[in-house]
Each structure stands twice: as structure tokens, then as C-alpha cells.
Design a protein that fits this description.
The structure holds 2 protein chains of 2 kinds. Chain A has 7 helices and 13 strands. By secondary structure, chain A is α/β, with parallel strands linked by helices. Chain B has 2 domains: about 180 residues, HUPs (Rossmann fold, 3-Layer(aba) Sandwich); about 120 residues, TPP-binding domain (Rossmann fold, 3-Layer(aba) Sandwich). In chain B, β2 and β3 form a beta hairpin. Chain B is elongated and about 65 Å long. The chains are: A alpha/beta, B alpha/beta.
Chain lengths: ~260, ~325
Amino acid sequence: MNVVVCVKQIPDPADPGALDPGTKTLKRDVKLILDESDTYGVEMALQLVDKAGEGSVHLVSMAPNNERSGLATALAMGAASATLISDPALLGSDALTTAKLLAAAIGERDGVDLVISGSESSDGYTGTVPTQIAAVLDLPSITAAKAITVDGGQVQIQRQTNAGYDDVTCSLPCVVSVTAGVVEPRYPSFKGIMAAKSKPVDERTAADLGFDAGQVGWAGAGQEIVDIAAAPARSAGEVVEDDGESYTKVIEFLENLKVI
Amino acid sequence: MTLSKIWVLAEAVDGEVATTTLELLTKARELADTVECVYAGDDADDLADTLGEYGCETVHQTGDLEGALVGVPLAAAIVAAVEAGDGPDAILAATTYDGRDTAARLSVKLDRTVLTNCVDLELDGDALVASEPVFGGTTDVKTKFTGEGPFIVLVRPKSFAPEPSGGGSADVEDLDVPDLGASGGAVVTERHVEESEGPKLDEAAIVVSGGRGLGEASKYSMVADLAKALKGAAGASRAIVDAGWVPYSQQVGQTGKVVKPTVYIACGISGATQHLVGMKGSKNIIAINKDPEAPIFAVADLGIVGDVHKVMPQILEALSKR
């Protein structure tokens, strides 16, 4: 069972950086971490490989610089190796270009049974990349999986729906995106962290994967940012310290709205 | 300046046209001369009256997909129509599971970018411009499609208020689904409906949500009880959904449902940007949290700095005496 997991390295959501007052663009010097929503995919993959008793977990990630700290976390969790698509030309790439590059890196590998990703990144929230990767590779895809079991050449998925969930069955290979909470991600052990330092991380540029500079980054994106403005702020109302009677304020508020 | 034709991905819930579809149709009428729908299924006849009432002239339906996940066959059928020269200038889909799958497949097959998380749309000449809130809704970014259409857009639920146009029933036409090859292999074998009491989370006039501040899973019952007492729906922050306290279907936020109720009561929720994006549009917001610095207070009309374990039972008791 060979599983590829797509992971994204993002600014820490607890410290998302700031606007550079000079250039009015996002400061890029913040340390990147492994997107927490990707830890579920990594854990799921590790468990599936464990259960199959053979195979390994390989990571694929993309960054404009050769940032590796997020990959190190996933390697420390137990992934065996990684491909890092790293190229300054990638800055500004849209979701479609990202998916094409990730798909190219996945397509370089033989014997991939399953591709797993999170449902959406915690910084961009596009949520289209997993299905776009599947479309580029001409594979079936199942998004929003909340449970995965593999049996022979088939994968059984519980797919989240608005009303509940669907049982979905599909042959391997395929692409599956998982919801947060699908499994409990393990914390990297000290041994895992040490072992990660010697695990192979292959770097690829856009050119290595067959893309020229005009196809990626800002140049290759079919979109252009035309305006950035502060959203109308919602003004804060009354804030009171609970003195044991503050619940009456809530009741009064609801009464005034005539909802009770 | 308007576009000549927009296709809206129509979806149905329990045999009725989904509210998100009506929202998209309402906006599409402003942007294009002709608004039509594409629909994955064989029961468009039952939806044609409502779709027509909101401005859809023709519904193109795929027919029975025999359990296949919608994205692959619907996108393939749309691509075939575009290649035959019958396609639209823009394709709008709601940010739903099937909407996302379809838009993502379309973008690859048509080699067009897809703009996501849009909350507003406008035209700049004949180019479509989409607005997207970033940084938890504090900043609006407008992005314009460059290059040729069809433009593919994923729109967040509740971005537009649905308004009927008074049109007559929409025509129903067949949309041919080509051979899907290897990508068409994912099939639904059984559907499970999780029963829930009371109004739906994204339709309720009152929503009571709980977060990590509740302390432990069992305390979520306070949220459920308060929602019930107010005839509202119970929601949750991502933190406690990820922790497994409540099902994902109750999650309010960027990931999860967008709610705009008359009253939103946030209990033990700090107000991470991820959560704020999903509830900031509420008409009135009450927040109860013990941390006076919690970001939720910045958007609350009434903020109680206090312990949810004390304040919530008092509110419940006061309501029970009425």
C-alpha cells in the first residue's frame, strides 16, 4: 500500500504575520508550519499503510521557497520520504497551477495506490486542489471523507453530506480528501523527530516537472487581484463583566428583539 | 454591459430547489441576459417551476447518474456542451460538496481558473470580478478573471438574498454525459440521513453555538438545551468538532456552515477568524466568554465576560420560568 499525502506549509494561524507598512503586502518572513488539517491525512495514511503491512507514505508539497519545517513535522510523524516542489517562480500560483504541479510530482512515482489530502488549507481555503489533482491524473476522487477503509483493490469511504453521510466505494488508485477529525493525529515522538532528519526530501523545480515560467506563478494564473480594501467593521456593542446577574441582560436583549 | 449567458449549478434538497441555487439565480439575472441551470439528476421537471420563478429559462439535466458522485459526470457533460459551442460565459456553483467537486473538475477540463469563496460578483466590461473576504473577513479582495471564459466561480452560501423574478416554468432539456473513463469510478452505495430536531442550522432564526470554553463534551448539552428553549438550532466551533464532541454537520465557520440568524449566541467561543467568517453576518450577536480579550467580543452586540457554566444555566432557568 503506497500512499501519497499532499501537505501544505502555511503561516501559523495563531501568528498569521502582518502587513508590511512599506510594501503593503503580507510579510513573508514568518515561520511556516504544517497545516493542522493536513495532519489528519498524514495520520490516516500511516494507519492504512500500517494495516496493509507493507508500503510507505510519501509526502508531496509545494512552496515558493525551500521551506521544510512543515514537512519535517509530517516526516517525524512517520512518513518515509517527501517531494518538495520549490521554485521562486511559483509565487502567486493559483489553485489550478498548484494542482497541475502536485499532480506532476505524484505522476513521477510508480505504484501509487492512493492519494490523500486535507479538504482545504487553513490559509487559502480554496478546497478545489484535491479534485483538481484527480482530474489532472484522470483518477476518481472522493472529497470530505470522514472514514476510510481499504480492502483489496477497493476503498470504502464515508463521505460527509449536508444530510448525514454517504457510503462510497471506489477502485484504487484514487484521490481522497479527508475532513478534520477523521482520525486523531499522533504527536511526533523524539525518536521520530530525530529520524526525520535523515529522511529523503527530493526538491523539484517547475522546470524539472516540465513547466516553463510563463505557466506558473502570477504569470500562469488566470486571475488578477484588482482591489484590496478593509471590510466594513462590525462595531462592538456593550460588554459587561458577569456579576451573577448578567443573565438578565441576555434575557432583556432577547425580549427587545421580540424573539422570546 | 452584461454577459450573454450564465449557467448556475442547480441543487435540490429533499426534492426542493436548494436555497443556495435561488441565491445564485437571483445574482445571475443581474449579470447576464440569459440564465440557465445545469442539474445532476432526472427529476428537473419537479424543480422547473421554482427555477423558472427565479429566472432560469432552461434546465439542462444529466438524467439518472446511478449513484455516481456528481462532480465527474456533471463536469464532463458541461465540458462537452462548451466544446460543442453551446456553453455559457460563466458557471456559478455554490460552495457545497458537489459544487466544489464539479467546479474543480471543470477548471481542469476547461483549463480555466476557478475563483472560490466569493461573496459578491460584478462586471468590469465583459470580465467577471469576484469579491472574497480574507483574514477572517477583515479584508475584501477583488479578483478579476483574465483570459477567456467560461469563468468558473464558487460562491459562499447566503451571499445574496433570493428574490423571485416571476418567470414561468423553466424548459427541461437533456444534457448528454459522455463516457467518463477511469475517473468515473466512485459510486454511492448507501445514503445515511442523520436525523436532527428543530430548525436547520443554516435556516434557524436563532443559533446557539458552543466552543472549547465549555470545557468538556458533556457540557455541550447546555448549548443544545438553550437552542431548544429558544426554538433555535445548535452550532459549534471547529475546535469542538475536531475534538469529536459534536458532528461536523453542526460546525459554523469558514469550514462548515455560514449562518445569518436574527440572533447568534456564542458560548465559550473565542472567535477565531475561521469561526467569525461563518457567523459575522448575524443580525445580533451575543457572546459569553470568560476571557475579556477574546476576539468574539469585537463583533458582539452584547458581551458577557463570565463563566458559561454559571451564566448559561441561569439563562435557561429564567427562560423556563416564562
